[in-house]
Amino acid sequence: MSGSSAGSTCSLHSHGLTINPLDLWNPLPPPRTHKKAVVWTTEEEGTLLDFLASHLSQASDGNFKKATWNAAAAHMAHNHPLSLDNSDKTAELCERKFKALKKSYYAVADLKLVASGFAYDDEHSAMISLDNANLWDWYVKVMYQAHKDAKPFCNSGFPHFTSIELLLPSHGQG
């Protein structure tokens, strides 16, 4: 039988693995595990921002060098030890978090402008109610490209606004 696979020793391909059905003693590799997602608390974000503020002299044009991010990771590990609920904050993750916080800063800065049409407060948010919900929807959906990062601040504040403002190269320039 030319079309039969009976007795074939050809490999089967399943999920990118090569398996020989005749070799039952060759165990499959262990299933892939995914790293636990890193969750940052407001307190941890504050710890990172305080550390960066204390090392601001090492930044050039608002960017910190790799050595500073490595030191930030060590600082985070010392101040927020690993636990079941607290994953490792590596240098790369610290840098990513700072970039994300800067995005949030710029979104909130736009909300604070009179032109946005919203009264924004760092503690209480944009305070969107039924009266201005349609305007908010237009702001974050229709004007999506310009204001997509504002969405989380509909009814939650941004406590790190002032801390990040102090870390930006434009602070104090006018």
Secondary-structure map:
Blueprint: E1 12-14, E2 17-19, H1 42-54, H2 66-79, H3 91-112, H4 133-142, H5 144-147, H6 161-167
Antiparallel strand pairs: 1-2
Overview in brief:
With 174 residues, the chain is mainly α. 40% of the residues lie in helices and 3% in strands.
Largest sheet, order of strands side by side?
A: 1-2
Content of β-strand: under 5%
- Rounded to the nearest angstrom, the radius of gyration is 25 Å
Number of domains: 1
* SSE succession: EEHHHHHH
Mean pLDDT score, rounded?
A: 74
Proportion in helices: 40-55%
**Helix/sheet category:** mainly alpha
Low-confidence runs: 10-14
Total strands: 2
Distance between the first and last residues' Cα: 84 Å
Q: Can you summarize the main beta sheet?
A: 2 strands, antiparallel
Oligomeric form? single chain
Protein name: Myb/SANT-like DNA-binding domain-containing protein
Pfam families: Myb_DNA-bind_4 (PF13837)
Organism: Pisolithus tinctorius Marx 270
Q: What would you note in describing this structure?
A:
With 174 residues, the chain is mainly alpha-helical. The protein has one domain. Helix content is 40%, strand content 3%. The protein has 6 helices and 2 strands; from the N terminus they run ββαααααα. Strands 1-2 form a two-stranded antiparallel sheet. The longest helix is centred in the middle third of the chain and has 22 residues, at 91-112. It is extended. It starts with 11 loop residues before the first strand and ends in a 7-residue tail after the last helix. Residues 10-14 have low confidence and may be disordered. Residues 39-109 form the Myb/SANT-like DNA-binding domain.
